[in-house]
Specification:
Elements (H helix, E strand, L loop, with lengths): L2 E4 L2 E5 L6 H7 L4 H14 L4 E7 L13 E8 L2 H11 L5 E5 L12 E6 L9 H10 L1 E12 L4 H8 L13 E4 L2 E3 L2 H11 L1 E9 L5 H6 L2 H11 L11 E8 L23 E3 L2 E3 L6 E5 L2 E3 L6
Parallel strand pairs: 3-4, 3-6, 4-5, 5-15, 6-7
Antiparallel strand pairs: 1-2, 7-11, 8-9, 10-11, 12-13, 13-14, 14-15
Helix pairs in contact: 2-8, 4-6
S-adenosylmethionine binds next to strand 2.
Length: 302
């Protein structure tokens, strides 16, 4: 995975061709993390809703967990991941697959009543811009569930105190531990959310026991149960590698007019007109491909 940069846009990590879902989740020994995240999502998600935007959906690992929503839009920059998601979830009309950049969402303002961004903010070199863009496409009082990688975790604190690590887990500066992979300070994330137009409602700390020995020795259900108990401490302190935040949009949003959905990510014109295997922008003339059930706003056709 390498970064693909554009002059006027933040660089985006490239998951094209990546076997992330298989190597990290299916064969990576991460059942504990997966199930601890499922508990957090169950606790934070509204029971029901109309249209949920899953930002950085990957291969759709979490998508079945949004069963209370009538429709789910899976958005990811990687066509490979979306194809895998479509193979796993099917061409059901409940799901819409969209290849696009979180920094430039191809949707009209105020469209969604909920959004999630799980294990994706840590790829954002400009998290404030990503969160502000997310707010734009959400309705008033919409629910947003955000997971981020926490630099102020217990392991980092111990390593810092033992002088095994040069960077401080306590300051607000992001840590780029690999190219386009960042750990953030919880206070910094809360600040970006507030500035982006969200209020934080609840925080859950997740994966307290992400330690190889514990994962090998203790039964999975027991470890997940312990984590489920410990998650509630997240409103008081955040010392885990992963933190889930439930936020709500603040202030009024223009309600998307009936039938309006996509807009051009380049010029923001809406509506787009339907071409043959494309959505065409009458505003700037760009044509966006629709192939194998995936709306592709990564780059225009031609
Ligand atoms: C670590 S994976 C997580 C996938 C999924 N949320 C999960 O938890 O299984 C991160 C995903 O974010 C996507 N991504 C990263 N930056 C993005 C951006 N700027 N716009 C859209 N997707 C992005 C990647 O393509 C990748 O599929």
């Amino acid at each position: 995975m390498s970064g693909a940069s554009h002059s006027d846009r933040p660089p985006v990590i490239d998951y094209e061709g990546s076997d992330y879902q298989a190597s990290f989740w299916e064969h990576g020994g991460r059942d504990y993390e997966d199930q601890a995240e499922a508990v957090a999502l169950r606790r934070l998600l509204p029971v029901s809703g109309k249209l949920l935007l899953e930002l950085g959906a990957g291969a759709g690992r979490n998508t079945p967990r949004y069963a209370g929503f009538e429709r789910v839009v899976l958005l990811d920059y990687s066509r490979t991941q979306l194809r895998l998601a479509r193979q796993a979830l099917g061409a059901h009309e409940r799901y819409l697959y969209v290849a696009a950049d979180i920094y430039r969402l191809p949707f009209v303002d105020g469209l969604f009543d909920a959004a999630t961004m799980i294990r994706t903010l840590h790829h954002m070199i400009d998290p404030q811009r990503a969160l502000t863009e997310t707010r734009r496409v959400l309705q008033s009082q919409a629910c947003f569930i955000l997971e981020f990688a926490n630099k102020q975790n217990l392991k980092a604190i111990l390593r810092y105190l033992l002088r095994r690590q040069s960077w401080s887990p306590f300051d607000l500066q992001a840590v780029e531990f690999a190219a386009l992979n960042f750990d953030f300070h919880p206070q910094a994330v809360r600040g970006w959310l507030k500035a982006g137009g969200f209020s934080v409602q609840r925080q859950l700390t997740v994966s307290h026991f992400r330690i190889g020995l514990l994962k090998r020795w203790l039964p999975l259900r027991f470890l997940v149960g312990l984590d489920a108990l410990a998650q509630w401490s997240g409103d008081w302190w955040q010392l885990t590698p992963s933190v889930f935040v439930k936020a709500q949009t603040v202030g009024d949003s223009p309600m998307a007019v009936k039938g309006a959905f996509f807009c051009c990510p380049e010029c923001r014109h809406s509506p787009l007109t339907e071409g043959t295997n494309s959505l065409d922008c009458p505003g700037c003339g760009r044509r966006w491909g629709v192939q194998e059930g995936i709306y592709d706003f990564k780059a225009p056709l031609d």
